[in-house]
Amino acid sequence: MRGIFTSQADGSFVIQTLLPVPYSIPLDDTVGEVMSQTRISPMRPSHVHFMINAPGYVEVITHLFKKSCPYIETDVVYGVKAPLIAEFRQMPAGTTTPSGHVANQPFWLLEYDFVLQHASSSESRASEAAA
After folding, report:
1. H/E run at residue 121
2. How many secondary structure helices (H) and strands (E) does the chain include?
3. How far is residue 45's CA from residue 71's CA, in Å, rounded to a whole number?
């Protein structure tokens, strides 16, 4: 699923999507041959991708992983890092959603604060490193 979402003036945002599920990398051709010779699981843990940008800030492309996913420790592409592991909490029916509606069925909630770096601080670090 893809979409373009805009935050509120304070930077907050709400996205409604499907709960991600683990999936296998493609095992055809050479990749499948290599994987069959290892004991490495071909599974990617549950995750949601984000590309976040704002004028005057460094763009962030990342993903957040579902903490309770059984493949969190064995991600085949080694993409899981501790700060990217997030708690997806199941909320009961009758709970008010972040968008202000009362849910008629259980839903999952992920709350995460992305912190963007000012572009000017990124540029000054790059020039310091070059000096």
Report:
1. helix 119-130
2. 2, 7
3. 5
Q: Provide Rg for the chain, Cα atoms.
A: 19
Q: Taking the model in full, what pTM does it have?
A: 0.83
Nearest in space to 85 (alpha carbons), one of 67, 68, 73, 111: 67
CA distances from 80 to 12, 30, 69, 76, 124 (A): 25, 24, 11, 10, 29
What backbone torsions phi and psi does residue 84 show, to the nearest 5 degrees?
A: -100, 0
φ, ψ for residue 74, nearest 5 deg? -130, 30
Express each pLDDT in 36-93 by its tens digit.
999 999 999 999 999 999 999 999 999 999 999 999 999 999 999 999 999 999 999 9
29: tokens are 């051709």
Residue 108 has φ and ψ, to the nearest 5°, of: -100, 140
- Say which CATH class 23-130 falls into: mainly beta
